[in-house]
Amino acid sequence: MLNNAILLSIRPQYANKIFEGRKRVELRRICPKYIKKGDLVLIYVSSPVKSLCGAFQVDKVVEKPLSELWKAVKGKAGVSRKEFNQYYQGLSVGSAIFFNNVWELSSPIELRELREQMTDFQAPQNFRYATADDLISIQPAEFMNLFTLKPLGKQVKQLKLLQQ
Questions:
Q1: Facing residues of 51 across strands?
Q2: Rounded distance between C-alpha atoms, residue 161 and residue 4, angstroms
Q3: Is 101 part of a structural domain of the chain?
């Protein structure tokens, strides 16, 4: 059962790896405080794409010293050890969001359209919690039905965030 929805900004090269199935863990320097197993993460792909492109469901969230974190995410995070070290430079602890059930929108929702549909929408620099206004009139079960699991290879339906 979904409890929270979080809009996460992800760079295009990492979002592509998620949708291709080559990345199963999202690394974070700052992890959302209110995120847990079963939550939905909406994938906002940052510049130059600037679009909501899909989602994934959280399996687990871990926060560990970097040496332990690398052991847990190696081969799953879509980065080399050098990239991992560069990303966490200056920190001693890092976070990782393990996920399953990845969905990709057949027609990404561009930033312009998101701003038209959602009052005061601002693309997240890192993450933001999706509000009830963002997902108005869409219950979690209905929301999930707007997607088809990517691994099944079925066509994904267009997501409509607001029905005003």
A1: 45, 110
A2: 15
A3: yes
Query: What pLDDT, in 10s, does the model give residues 7-47?
Result: 889 999 999 999 999 999 999 998 888 889 988 888 999 99
CATH code of the domain in which 146 resides: 2.30.130.30
Q: Is residue 158, in this structure, part of any structural domain at all? A: no
Q: Please give the Cα distance from 135 to 132 (Å, whole number).
A: 5
Q: Please give the structure tokens belonging to residue 67.
A: 């040496």
Distances (CA, A) of 76 to 34, 46, 86: 23, 21, 17
For the whole model, what pTM was predicted?
0.78
For 136, other C-beta atoms within 10 Å of its C-beta total: 13
Contacts of 83 (CB under 8 A, 6+ apart): none
pLDDT in tens, 104-145: 887 888 888 877 776 676 776 667 656 555 554 233 343 444
Q: Exposure of 16 by Cβ count < 10 A (0-12 exposed, 13-18 middle, 19+ buried)?
A: middle
